């Protein structure tokens, strides 16, 4: 998917909501556990109930890998279901990968070719030659971790290097990489006040913003400091939406939560 | 596996060799492609030919994920084959994972429980709460990226933060994390001269050293600067061993290459 198509969808749906499909079998409604593929059944119900309210889905691969081959099969069925029924929706493999050059190419093939995601999250620690193999794919997007939403972000990301924090170095340096127009960045909503500074470094890039809802980030603040002329934001909510109810009405409850966020977003556009 | 068991194996085999099982279907002998599971068949042959010469096997997950579900099945068969036939061998999932707390727990389950690896490589960018969930598992080891073997290591890892390079901050800071005795570190052989400094920060930790062979690192230099009283080194070779021949004799050729390295290691012990 091109960035222009994503922006067009945002305006059509009046939404820049991304829904995180982080399926934990201990949290989904218990009646689903009797099904042959409870992970996929849960995702399918959530997607059927929310696809008109969001512009992106983001399965975090950890939740699938934890269930072994069964989990990977459910991930593949989920992405195929989205790509077949809702090809207009931007898909993010939240995988936080990154390795030396030829190995990153294998990861890129896994997520862009085998699973056919539109984008993948990548960790920057190993530098340029660990990220460029992802950037080499046309109309695929690499979402680089910049400033994450967790406490541990203060361990290294916010430390100063030559009078500039590590996460700012990551933003700055990555702009010079080959095909850097395919980059987006992860910036946690729990650190909304940092967004103004971030926008001076990457004014036009899309930012994927986790941490609204369960982690405590505030939607209005994120928009105030992070929105640009092309919107430039994908705001993710996972647990706050998908676990809105653990009863038979879980899909309807998730749609209600998604609608709340979509309505707040419509006001910001 | 405990660290003591690993050290005992090193002395028994006079080897601290780790073999990287990075299977690329474009590089393995073509006659294997006719088999139902060529990835596993290749690994099985390499393991059968080399298990007496090495103390660790390290499949890099990228090479398996690139082949989708077929790849994950081959990874599972490979680790099960090692654990069943050679339980004395230390196993490393080279996965370079890392995410916010509850998500890292899911990754830890994937590699320590579902796949039953002894250890997993983890990226430090997201800090303490992204690594501690891995450290919580008894007799399992978390191998943190410190200074990697690629060029991109100079993009961020060697930049100075408060008069100390980022990778040294990672080493230093990680020592204060809960269950830090379960930590090992990745230090590239291409940067052997850095090992003396690294040993002043983590004198007793095991270091996993990739980059000997194909990437140009030198075994003697790594031992000179990196070895400690308990050896403290696992030196990895992947392509240099497993792709020693593309003919029918590939397993024998890999054993010859492994033997060369093992003999050099025996001299260093």
UniProtKB/TrEMBL annotation, chains A, B:
Enzyme class: lyase
Domain of life: Bacteria
Pathway the protein contributes to: Pyrimidine metabolism; UMP biosynthesis via de novo pathway; UMP from orotate: step 2/2
Orotidine 5'-phosphate decarboxylase domain: residues covered: 16-254
InterPro entries for this protein: Aldolase_TIM (IPR013785), OMPdecase_type-2 (IPR011995), OMPdeCOase_dom (IPR001754), RibuloseP-bd_barrel (IPR011060)
Keywords carried by this UniProt record: Decarboxylase, Lyase, Pyrimidine biosynthesis
Pfam families, alphabetized: OMPdecase (PF00215)
Catalytic reaction annotation: orotidine 5'-phosphate + H(+) = UMP + CO2
GO molecular function list: orotidine-5'-phosphate decarboxylase activity
CDD domains documented for this protein: OMP_decarboxylase_like (cd04725)
Family from the record: Belongs to the OMP decarboxylase family. Type 2 subfamily.
Family matches, as HAMAP family: OMPdecase_type2 (MF_01215)
PANTHER family named among the record's database cross-references: OROTIDINE 5'-PHOSPHATE DECARBOXYLASE
Name the record gives this protein: Orotidine 5'-phosphate decarboxylase
Organism from which the protein derives: Asprobacillus argus
Gene this chain is encoded by: pyrF
């Amino acid at each position: 998917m091109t960035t222009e198509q994503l922006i067009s969808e945002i305006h059509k749906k009046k939404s820049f909501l991304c829904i995180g499909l982080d399926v934990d079998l201990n949290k989904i409604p218990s009646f689903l556990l009797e099904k042959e593929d409870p992970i996929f059944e849960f995702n399918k119900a959530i997607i059927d109930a929310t696809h008109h309210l969001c512009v992106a889905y983001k399965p975090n691969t950890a939740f699938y890998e934890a269930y072994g081959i069964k989990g990977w099969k459910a991930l593949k069925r989920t992405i195929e279901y989205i790509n077949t029924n809702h090809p207009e929706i931007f898909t993010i493999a939240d995988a936080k990968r990154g390795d030396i050059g030829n190995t990153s190419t294998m990861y890129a093939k896994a997520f862009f070719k085998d699973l056919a995601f539109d984008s993948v999250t990548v960790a920057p620690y190993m530098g340029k030659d660990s990220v460029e193999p992802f950037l080499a794919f046309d109309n695929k997007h690499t979402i680089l971790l910049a400033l994450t939403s967790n406490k541990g972000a203060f361990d290294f990301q916010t430390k100063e290097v030559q009078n500039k924090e590590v996460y700012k170095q990551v933003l700055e340096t990555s702009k010079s990489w080959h095909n850097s127009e395919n980059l987006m960045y992860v910036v946690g909503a729990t650190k909304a006040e940092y967004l103004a500074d971030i926008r001076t470094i990457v004014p036009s890039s899309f930012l994927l913003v986790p941490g609204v809802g369960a982690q405590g980030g505030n939607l209005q603040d994120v928009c105030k400091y992070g929105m640009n002329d092309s919107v430039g934001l994908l705001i993710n909510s996972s647990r706050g939406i998908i676990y809105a109810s653990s009863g038979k009405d879980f899909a309807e409850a998730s749609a209600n939560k998604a609608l709340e966020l979509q309505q707040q977003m419509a006001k910001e556009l």
